[in-house]
Structure formats: C-alpha cells, structure tokens
Amino acid sequence: MEVDRRAFIASLGGVAAVNLMDHEAKAEALEHYMEDKLDEMIAAQQPADKFPTVAEIEAQIETRPFRRGVGSVFTSNKGNVKIIEKMPDKPTLHDFFRLRFAPANHVLQSATRALKTGMSEEVVLACLLHDCVLSLIKPDHGWWGAQLFEPYIPEKSAFAIRYHQTLRFYADDDAGYEYPDQYYRIFGHDYQPPQYIADTYKMLKNHKWYMEPRLVTVNDLYAFDPNAKVSIEPFEDIIGRHFKQPKEGLGYDNSPSAHMWRTLARPDNPL
Ligand SMILES: [Fe+2]
Ligand SMILES: [Fe+2]
C-alpha cells in the first residue's frame, strides 16, 4: 500500500508532534494509519450487500486469540504487547490522553469538528471523551464511558457520552446523521440492534436532552481525514472549565469510577 507521507504526518499532528515521538511510537502510528487506510479502501470497494453478514462475523470469533470487546490497552493487533509507560503519581486527564488513550485521533477529530461547528462546550467535551473508554473495554462503551467520566464532568456531557452509543444506530436526517457504512462492515449488514438499544432509543426520542448525544453522533467521524491536524491544545480551556480534575489524581480520589482509572493505569496487574 502506498502511504502519503504528508497526510500521515498531518494525521499525527504535524512535523513537530512527529519529532517528539520515539521510533517505536512512529512505527506503531504508521501501522495504525495503514490499517485505517486499508479498512477505508475495503469499505469503499464494497457495495452494501458485499459487507459481511452477522453470521460471517460470528464465524470469525474462533479465529482470534482475544475477544473483539477487549480494551485496546490490553491487547496488541500484531505480536506481543509492549512495556507501557508508567502513569505519574497523580495522573491528570492529559496524562491519560498521552499515555493510555493515545493516539486518540478519533476523539480529537470529533471534538475539533464540534468546536468548528459551534457546539456547546458540554457537547465539545462529550465529543472529546466519547470513545476514550475503548482503551478499557468496548462493548457498551457508551455506558462504561459515561460512568468513567461522570464524577468529573457536567451531567449533559455524561448523558451525551452514555447515549451516543444508542443513537449511532439510528439515522436522523434533520440532524444530518446517516447510518455509517462502517457499521455494515463491523456489525454485519443484516445487524439489528438488541432490544435494550431499541428501548433506549425510544426513551431518547422524547427526551429533552435528545440533541446532546445526537450531536456526538453528528460529529463522530467514521472516515479518516488525512488533512486533519489534531491536538488537545484547543480544548484546554473547555477542560479547565468543565473537567473537575481531582487533586489526588484520577484513580485516587475515591470516586465511583476511581477503580476504572486505576485499571487503565496498571493494565499489567494480574488481579
Ligand atoms: Fe462511540
Ligand atoms: Fe466515535
């Protein structure tokens, strides 16, 4: 596969950002980039009926040494996992972005789009955090993600994170949200969301905060944008205003989700 050097460097936040990366990180970033590109190329070539069926996807379960729902910090796409950098004693949200949610391109791109399109600060924050929990676990990531961040962020942002998972399965033409092609590929073209998701959607349709999670789906980017330059910098003010960083550090403040942060901090603990 040919790699567009300029687009690749831009995807990592530009030359300055790339210069800060060690050799290993660069190699890994390139691997991710090529995987994303390949996924896109395959998706672009597949008419809807060429996407796999639910049964075909299920048949792949026993071809892997891990389950699809495992958090990205806990597995490696290829070969063995690497030594992971230790978190500082009193970790902040920034430390987690740098050391456990990285490269975080997807959430940074979503939040950048939300910022550019003039969304509320609660929605921008929700976009910035909406998929971070995928480092820990993938199934039901809306609920897990909301729980992880809930003690530290506005109620509306947590609501948006919790329910974007449901709304992404339902198109909303007025809001400008289409069912993503990517879901035909990863869930199967004949996939039907389970009953609890259908029930949650029904509840959300009449909820006064429907637009909060809807806007997360609208800003969710399913296609890789090679020209996007992303960094956490434009969000410093919003984080400062709306993220209640505990002085003891995330994981050590006895909040209801402190254990989740500690698990992310020490993924090599055997128990
Ligand atoms: Fe998501
Ligand atoms: Fe997302």
Textual characterization of the structure:
The chain is an all-alpha fold and 271 residues long. Helix content is 49%, strand content 0%. The chain is built from 14 helices and no strands. The longest helix has 23 residues, at 23-45. The termini are far apart. The mean pLDDT is 89. It binds fe (ii) ion (FE2) (2 copies).
Strand content: under 5%
Q: What's the count of strands? A: 0
- Please compute the radius of gyration using only Cα atoms: 19 Å
Poorly predicted regions: none
What structural class results from the helix and strand content?
A: mainly alpha
Strand count, sense and closure of the main sheet?
none
Shape: globular
Mean pLDDT rating? 89
Bin the helical content.
40-55%
Q: Give the SSE string.
A: HHHHHHHHHHHHHH
Distance between the termini: 41 Å
Number of helices: 14
User: Could you tell me which ligands this complex binds, including any ions or cofactors?
Assistant: fe (ii) ion
